[in-house]
Structures are given as C-alpha cells and as structure tokens.
Specification:
3-stranded mixed β-sheet, elongated
Length: 437
C-alpha cells in the first residue's frame, strides 16, 4: 500500500507531532483523496487507512500506540477543538454527492454524458431503480438520494423539465413517495410528466378532480415560478462545494472559545500542537500514569515533592511558576492571582485574542512557555537532563523573538517598542506603514 510505503520511508522519530500532522495532511491524505474522489472504497479499507494515519500521528510508525486524543476529536475542524483532518468515509461520501450534483446540473463532463446515455436513458436520476446489474458506484449513488434531496432547493422555471412525480422539488420529497402510484393514474398525467405540464402562463394548474392533490395545489400557490430551472444547495441559488457536502455528513460540535488562542497566523506549529494537547488535557502527566497502573508514584518531575498534575506541572510548581512570572513580565502583563490552568485560559481569552501585536505576543508566549515546560519535564524523565529556569526562559525568548522578527512588521509605538526590547527582538520588525500595531 502506498501509504504504508511512504511512512516506512520517512525518518519519523525525528519529527514532532506537528511535523507528522503536516505529512498526513500533505501526503497521506493526498494519496487517499485520489481514490476517494474517483471511486467507491469499501468501509473496511477506509477504516484501515484511518488506523494507519492514527498510528503514524501518535507513534510515528505503524506500531500501535495509545492515542492522546480520540480520532473522532482529531477529525473535527480546528474551531471545534480538532486538528482539521477529515474522516475518509465522510470524504468518500462527499465525493459521491459531488457526482450526483454534476449529474443533476448536467455538467459538461464525459462521466455525465456517459451516465445519461448508458444508465439513465432518458429517465430522471430519482426515477432509476437499484438493480443488481448496476455497478457498485451507481448503487452507492442511489443509496445517497435521500441524503442529497434533503439539501436541494428547486427553483421552478416556466418551461420546467424536472420530473413532476420523481424529482424531490416539493418539500424535498418525490410526489410518488408522498402520494403513491395510484395518484399518478388518477391524475391522468404520465409517469414521465414534467412540472411544465401543471403550469399555464407561469401559474399552477393542477387536476382538480384528484382530492389527493388538494394540499399540494394550495401549497404551490406560494411557490414562485421563475424564468428557468435551477437547483441550489441548502438555499435557492446556493452553490455546491465539497466542503458544504462534507459539513452535511459529519456531526458538528460546539465551537471552542480557545481555538483562536491555539491556531493563529504566524504560530509556531509544534508549540500550537502542544498547547492543543494541553487544552484537551491530553498530556500524560504522572498522576494519569499512576491511575493507569504504569507508574508506582506520581511525584513532580521538577523535584518539589508534590504530585504532578496538569495544574501543578504548569503553574503550581515553584520551577514553572518562576518561568510563568517572567513570561508575564516580558509581555508587560500583571501577575495572575490564581495559578491554575483554568485561570490562565480565562486570561488568554480575555487578553490574548486579536490582531494587534501585543495580543500576538501573548499568544505566542503562552504557547512557547507551555511547550518548553513540557519538554523540560520530558528531558528530566527520559534523558536525565535538567535546565535552570533562566536557561528555559532563554529558549522561550529565542523562539518567540526569532518568529516575531521573521514574520511580523509592526508600528513603532512606545508600547510595541517596550515589548520588542523585553523579548530582545530585532528593531527590523518596525515599519512606519505597518497596520497591525
């Protein structure tokens, strides 16, 4: 399999989580999308592809490893707390919906021309019956009809060519399903009748002798007749896109308020990934490892003698508290009264979201501090290496200052200059015409 061979050729152990995420998005999903956009893929194959990508993200190889965050959470948009990946099964369905859309809108393509000539043969797409002789692709397309019809909004033209009985133009349901075949017979209209046959000078003209059509006759008085037929996605005249189709398939989640603190223009990817894990409380601190039976004790890695929890590791420990105080000073921010993760989140949401330079510096400083504190903790456990708070602060300041100098151009104001001097950023960051002061 191409995905497996790609992973085996990468030296993944040298990559951070964010580096692996980039390779998954750019390469593995590229391979997968080529097939999901062009054919029906069995569900078991799609599940295997997900398993490969999940293992690569968390282990850097094909070896199965405990996931820090569930795959369902990973495959949510970033503003809903995920990493922005898409589940292959949903992508495959969205690609098939795109084929249906092309067919309904008579898109000029070889596949549409072939389908109309060899499969539909003059019939409506909604009228086609699922038979054993149809290909796997066409059987899947027909199985998606109810899902697609719920998103379509028909605009009825004066000479409408939509199928009167089989197209879901009325309340997203074909009339034959709502009324039955007997009504078609009683109306005196043919099975192949178009909507234009119940229109007269842009007015509705339904058979009056069929009582089953009475409700529809009244409802149609509120349906305007326009110049020509058209279909919209989700709204009249709405354009179709793969993203909209994908959105209609997935289960959406509430937007998380901290997404703009983690993901923003100019962020350092590995810092953002570590901060994302922190917001999801996914770091395997020793208190979690103790509860899983992996460790026999949960002492703080910085040697303060307390239990290592998320709050203690990043804020309550004397070592990390020293780091945080200095980071807040560098950003000219007051020292918080409560040292815990929830208080820091509330501070960030209130004081670090925006396009101005001070807000960018606060977000970047927060992400850098979390990343380097976590890395220092791991160095002490796994590499038996220890750095002083001043050495750790030097690494944080280096990352922040270098990223700011390479990425930003800001106005030369007293407040901005104070931040630049605090962090040791080059004066080249200033420009007279900058707009994100």
């Amino acid at each position: 399999m191409k995905m497996v061979s790609k992973i085996q050729s990468w030296t993944s152990r040298c990559l951070s989580f964010s580096g692996r995420l980039q390779l998954i998005q750019a390469t593995l999903f590229g391979i997968l999308n080529f097939w999901t956009f062009n054919t029906v893929i069995p569900a078991l194959t799609l599940q295997k592809c997900e398993s490969i990508m999940r293992s690569y993200l968390w282990a850097g190889s094909m070896i199965k490893k405990r996931s820090k965050v569930s795959w369902a959470q990973v495959c949510k948009p970033k503003d809903e707390g995920g990493l922005g990946l898409r589940r292959p099964s949903e992508c495959n369905k969205a690609a098939l919906i795109r084929l249906i859309w092309d067919l309904l809108n008579n898109r000029h393509s070889l596949w549409v021309l072939w389908s109309k000539a060899e499969i539909l043969k003059g019939r409506s797409f909604w009228q086609l019956e699922s038979k054993q002789t149809l290909s796997v692709t066409w059987k899947r397309l027909l199985s998606l009809r109810s899902l697609v019809s719920a998103k379509l909004v028909y605009s009825i033209g004066r000479n409408s060519s939509w199928s009167l009985w089989y197209d879901p133009w009325y309340q997203n349901t074909p009339l034959v399903e709502k009324l039955g075949v007997r009504t078609i017979y009683d109306s005196g209209l043919a099975h192949e009748a178009t909507i234009s046959e119940v229109l007269q000078d842009s007015n509705w003209s339904w058979p009056v002798h069929v009582w089953q059509l009475e409700e529809i006759r009244c409802d149609c008085l509120n349906i305007p007749v326009v110049q020509r037929d058209s279909i919209g996605w989700c709204k009249a005249g709405g354009k179709f896109s793969f993203k909209l189709a994908w959105d209609s398939l997935r289960l959406s989640a509430p937007v998380v308020p901290w997404a703009k603190v983690v993901w923003f223009r100019g962020a350092i990817p590995k810092h953002s990934f570590c901060l994302w894990l922190t917001f999801n409380r996914a770091h395997l601190t020793t208190d979690k490892l103790l509860s899983l039976g992996i460790l026999q004790q949960s002492n703080c890695s910085f040697g303060c003698g307390q239990q290592e929890t998320l709050n203690h590791l990043f804020f309550d420990c004397p070592y990390t508290r020293t780091v945080w105080k200095k980071v807040m000073e560098l950003n000219n921010c007051p020292t918080p009264t409560d040292w815990n993760w929830d208080s820091m989140v509330a501070w960030a949401l209130a004081n670090a979201v925006g396009i101005r330079f001070p807000y960018w510096m606060r977000r970047t400083g927060l992400a850098a501090a979390v990343y380097h504190c976590w890395r220092e903790r791991n160095d002490r456990i796994f590499r038996n290496l220890a750095s002083s708070p001043d050495q750790l602060l030097a690494r944080i300041a280096f990352d922040v200052s270098m990223k700011a100098a390479l990425f930003l151009k800001v106005q030369d104001t007293p407040s901005n200059r104070a931040l630049v001097e605090n962090w040791g950023i080059s004066d080249s960051i200033f420009t007279v015409n900058a707009c994100n002061g």
